[in-house]
Amino acid sequence: MADSTDNHSSLPTRKEVIDACAPPKDINVLKYEVDGARPLFIKFGYDLIGGAETQRYLYEQSVRNPNAPRIPAVYDSFEIGRVGYGRGYIVMEYIEAPTVEYWLEKKPDMAELLYDKVAEAVRWILNCPLPPEPRFGPMGRGPAQHSVFADLIAPLAFDSPDAVQRYFNTALTRFTPKRAPIIAPVDFSNEEVCFYHCDIRPPNFHYDPETQKVTIVDLQSVGIGPKSFASFPFHMEPHLDREFHHAIATRIDYPETENIDAMAKASGYLLMCGGSALGLDESGHPKPKPLKHSKNIAAAK
Q1: Distance (Å, rounded) from C-alpha 174 to C-alpha 261?
Q2: I need a labelling partner for 124 at 20 to 30 A (CA). Which of 60, 91, 178, 299 fits?
Q3: Per DSSP, which regions of 13-144 are E strands?
Q4: What is the torsional sign of CA 52, 57, 63, 67?
C-alpha cells in the first residue's frame, strides 16, 4: 500500500511505476509527471528497499524539528522478484530546489555558505536519535552500504556490529603478510552506535535560497553502526569531490576512532578479493562445510 506521507493526492499505481521505469535507461532515477499533479521522483534498481525505511524514519524525525534539514517524503517502496534480489522501486517527493553541485558551478561565491549549510545538515544526520533496537546498516532489511566495503556494499546483511567486527578481523588475519607490522584487531565493543553518512558529495544535497534549507537526497549510504562507521568517511581520502568533502569534514571535525586504521587495512584486502564474504555467515561465523558424502548423494540425484 502506498504511504500517505505528505498527503500526495495522485500516486501512480505500482504497475504504472514499473512501466515508467521499464525502457532501457543509463540512469536509475526518473522524474514522474502527470498533468495537474505535482511531480514525483522515482528511484529504481537493486539493494534499495532497506534504505527506503531509513529515509522514512529520517523524514519523520525531520518534520518534528524545525531546525532539521529537509528529507524527501517516501510515498511508496516495493520490490519485484525474489526477496532481497529483486528490482526495487522508491516513489518519493520531488525536490524543486537546485543541487549544491549546481550552485557551486553557477555561483562559486556561495561556496562558504553552502559548505556551512551542508555540514550542518550532515551533523544533524550523525546526531539523529536512534530507533528502538537499531539494526546494523539500513533500518530495513538488506546489507549496509558504506565506503569501507568493496563495491561500497557489504557482502552480507550482517546481523550485528559483532558480526561485521568478525568479518574485518577475518580479513586481517587471512590476508596480512607474516612480516607485516602487527595491526590491532577491530574492536567495536566500547563504541556507541549512531547514524553514519558516507556519500557526502554535492549532487546529494539541494539548496533553496528562499528558505535557506538544505535537502539531503540519495540516502542509500546512510545507516546505523558503531561510531567508527561515522568516523571512517571523514578520515579517508575520497575518490571524488575531494575539495567539497574536505570542506565538510573540516567543519564537522568528527573524531577519529581507534578502529580506523584496521578498518582501512581490512578494506584494502577485501577490495583485492572482490568483496568476498570470506566463507562467513551473517553473524560473522564460518559457514559449516558440506560433508563429502552429501556431495555424493547430490551428484547421484
Answers
A1: 17
A2: 91
A3: 29-32, 40-45, 74-80, 87-93
A4: negative
Closest by CA to 87, choosing from 40, 28, 137, 140, is 28
Q: Read off the pTM.
A: 0.89
Give the CA count within 13 Å in the CB-facing half-sphere of 84: 7
Cell of 16: 504504472
pLDDT tens-digit map of 210-261: 999 999 999 999 999 999 999 999 998 877 788 999 999 999 999 999 999 9
CA–CA separation, 93 and 227 (whole Å): 30
Task: State in Å, rounded, how far the first CA of the chain is from the last one.
Answer: 43
Radius of gyration over every alpha carbon of the chain, rounded to an integer in angstroms:
21
Strand partners, 205: 216
49: pLDDT confidence band, cut at 50, 70 and 90?
A: confident
> How is the chain split into domains, by residue range?
1-94, 95-289
Q: Is 94 exposed, middle or buried (0-12, 13-18, 19+ CB in 10 A)?
A: middle
Residue bearing cell 561465523: 285
> Could you please report the per-residue DSSP string of 172-214?
HHHHS-TTSPP-PPP--TTPPEEEEE----GGGEEEETTTTEE
Q: Which CATH architecture has domain 95-289?
A: Alpha-Beta Complex (3.90)
> Regarding the domain delimited by 1-94, which CATH topology (the fold level of the hierarchy) does it fall under?
Phosphorylase Kinase; domain 1 (3.30.200)
Question: What are the C-alpha distances in Å from 79 to residues 14, 83, 154?
Answer: 10, 7, 20
